[in-house]
UniProtKB/TrEMBL annotation, chains A, B:
Upper classification of the organism: Bacteria, Pseudomonadati, Pseudomonadota, Alphaproteobacteria, Hyphomicrobiales
Pathway: Amino-acid biosynthesis; L-proline biosynthesis; L-glutamate 5-semialdehyde from L-glutamate: step 2/2
Name of this protein: Gamma-glutamyl phosphate reductase
Function: Catalyzes the NADPH-dependent reduction of L-glutamate 5-phosphate into L-glutamate 5-semialdehyde and phosphate. The product spontaneously undergoes cyclization to form 1-pyrroline-5-carboxylate.
Annotated signal sequence range: none
Enzyme Commission number(s) from the entry: 1.2.1.41
Family matches, as PROSITE patterns: PROA
Subcellular location: Cytoplasm
Keywords linked to the UniProt accession: Amino-acid biosynthesis, Cytoplasm, NADP, Oxidoreductase, Proline biosynthesis
GO BP term, pick one: L-proline biosynthetic process
Coiled-coil stretches: none
Molecular function, one GO term: glutamate-5-semialdehyde dehydrogenase activity
Main enzyme class: oxidoreductase
Length: 430, 430
């Protein structure tokens, strides 16, 4: 039996295997820490080439996953997330090439200054070390997450979903081929070689101090488990309960366009709007106009009492609706007393992710942008812009909803830390 | 019975009390978030005045703590940490005034840029929200920590040591007087009104989501408990196992001065050196010179085999010595094969806090500064400079040894987070 087979049949000690991954990762992280940009980029480009060259192997592996998924009765959307074809493999390869093109954040000087003792202090960006990523079915995450971590100078331990186990292994083999071709340690990107859930438990415990950071990428239950149980820092994403507030000074045409885009461009992403708030001062005209545009575009409307009066026939929003992330073509609509009412509603029900105000009044906009305690505040723009790429940060590993370290899009820079480099001439402290 | 008495006698529900503190803190945080600098500074200055005016009350409260501590048989050093007098109260007041003078980090633009969609993106510094601080006997932390959190726009819940309970309450009363005088909510700085350890457990659970951050300030056992059990992010300080490496190209006089200062200026702080590493190429002369200077200054020397040969009569260092934070006038000395040997030793035994290289060779220095994975790396300067004040950051709440969010000194800026403020003109995402 191979190690992988032993692991799959449970004849190997999971804890020991995972500790081994941790030790390998720490060694690889040391090499990655001072690897020059050219070498890291070469690894990513070689991995992209390997993905394209070995696409048949990947498709074969993916067929194993797809057959197993169909046998287990997975639904259409789940199957679609899992499926690979030549076009999707090419897109994964292009993703690696795009990451190679991004600036290397490592080694840059974030700030520097002199202090009274004569010391020169530099705050320099450095890799975090070893990152653990726990994700669900999409096999492309194996490539995206592995590449982002390596480009930021980190070693990474990937734990993919059991549904995509074979696909991820085939993609991982291409990443390893890339690392080897560039002379970087193969252990810079390790894939947990088992689908046993005990492996996740070991990662949550931190692999004997080997993990510097855990990133869960998946649904709420995964992120909640990781956030609750992890003994290492976590950058995760909980709810994206985003609001669009239409102020009395809004341009109604703009409000219609932005609200329809914010809700319906893609309903399944965390930046999709879930609640529409309309200023009572203009609700009589603005609410039917904006909610009507949403309805015409195929969105179900659920309203509070005031909204129901203005749009007879819509369903009633219950208290649950204000705190539900539909991720679907449904929106809850409430009438609020001005910007203070909107801020109050968002503070009570929001998830501090992304909120938008539509108004032509700069003063009202500034109040909203200043007082609202969410990660991303937009004035006159769709909440669907809540995305690392749209922010000009390049590829992202997700959107963090915590307040520490990284808030909002987690790109290359957010996968680094810093250290202080201090130069003196023999100074002693008085 | 007063609430405080009920709490002290355990007749009140601790969990409910702590939840109440959390709710109050969230409300206060909302007011603090947009409080102007002038108002926050006024609160700190009024608190300083109140400390001076009410010094007799504070000394009386302190006497209760001192009497109880003596009755419990606390030792001299512990008693000294607890003791207040007019001079120390004045120093606490001066500390508040110094924090009032620091720049307000809140609201500043960290970065801003335009993206292809026409959106203007600003990364703006904002308060974290509600911070919980758990500390041990020094009563001055009540004032320092409370003031730093408020200046950074946060509400704070302080849980002081039971030994300093009465002193902390008296100091806290002055802080509240300052907040009230400036028109800020008294609940911006709350002191846990009980010495029951169950209160700490509640804080570790996060007070129903009210806490954004926990900062333990105290010995290793406290920090370890908080780091291990907390369900909210923690900025803490574990070991400070700092190294001084004397390279073959070191100026020996400089090495002597820096090593003596690094070890002996104050032995009890986290930036004190614990291990001296000497390049084998110059060990025959450098080791007796540098370790001899330490010995002459009253330091106990424990050496590896090579060091013992060069300095007959010193004690042998066991394997434990390389990983012991003495916090005392003891140093472990090893001979290493050049800068690579030093880096290897530090990677194996260090705590990623602060390390120093003494060398006249820029290339060797750069290698050390680049490859060593510690928070603070110093070239030709004492490790005792590992301090927020010495870094020009003003007062600090401690030194963080984790890699996420804040690394090294935790000052005002590190007690904040940021949000993205995005301005558009009706953009929708394609």
């Amino acid at each position: 039996m191979s190690v992988a087979e032993k692991l799959e049949t449970g004849t190997t000690d999971i804890a020991a295997t995972m500790r081994g991954l941790g030790i390998n990762a720490r060694t690889a992280a040391k090499a990655l820490r001072s690897a020059p940009r050219k070498q890291k980029d070469a690894a990513l480009l070689a991995a992209a080439a390997s993905l394209r060259a070995d696409s048949n192997d990947i498709l074969e592996a993916n067929k194993l996953d797809m057959d197993a998924a169909e046998a287990r009765g997975l639904t259409g959307a789940m199957l679609d997330r899992l499926k690979l074809d030549d076009g999707r493999i090419d897109a994964i390869a292009k993703g690696l090439e795009a990451i190679a093109e991004l600036d290397d954040p490592v080694g840059s000087t974030i700030a520097e200054w002199d202090v009274h003792s004569g010391l020169h202090i530099e705050r320099r960006r450095v890799p975090l070390g070893v990152i653990g990523i726990i994700y669900e079915s999409r096999p492309n995450v194996t490539a995206d997450a592995g590449a982002l971590c390596v480009k930021a100078g980190n070693a990474v331990i990937l734990r993919g979903g059991s549904e995509s186990f074979h696909s991820s292994r085939a993609i991982h083999a291409c990443l390893v081929a890339g690392l080897k071709a560039a002379g970087l340690p193969a252990e810079a990107i390790q894939l947990v070689p088992t689908t046993d859930r005990a492996a996740v438990g070991e990662m949550l415990k931190g692999l004997d101090g080997a993990l510097d950071l855990l990133v869960p990428r998946g649904g709420r239950s995964l992120t909640e488990r990781v956030t609750t149980e992890a003994r290492v820092p976590v950058l995760g994403h909980l709810d994206g309960l985003c609001h669009v507030y239409v102020d009395k000074d809004a341009d109604i045409e703009m409000a219609k366009q932005v609200a329809v885009n914010a809700k319906l461009r893609r309903t399944g992403i965390c930046g999709a709007a879930e609640t529409l708030l309309v200023d009572e001062a203009v609700a009589a005209t603005a609410l039917p106009a904006v909610a009507g545009a949403l309805k015409d575009a195929g969105c179900e409307i659920r309203g509070d009492d005031a909204a129901q009066k203005l749009m007879p026939g819509i369903a009633a929003a219950t208290d649950d609706d204000w705190s539900t992330e539909y991720l679907d073509a449904i929106i809850a609509v409430a009438v609020v007393p001005g910007v203070d009412g909107a801020l109050g509603h968002i503070a009570k029900y929001g998830s501090q992710h992304t909120e938008c105000i539509i108004t032509g009044n700069e003063q009202t906009a500034n109040k909203f942008l200043t007082e609202c305690d969410s990660a991303i505040l937009l004035h006159n723009a769709s909440t669907q812009f809540a995305d690392g790429g749209e922010f000009g940060m390049g590829a992202e590993i997700g959107i963090a909803t915590g307040k520490l370290h990284a808030r909002g899009p987690v790109g290359l820079e957010q996968l680094t830390t810093f250290k202080y480099v201090v130069r003196g001439s023999g100074q002693t402290r008085p």
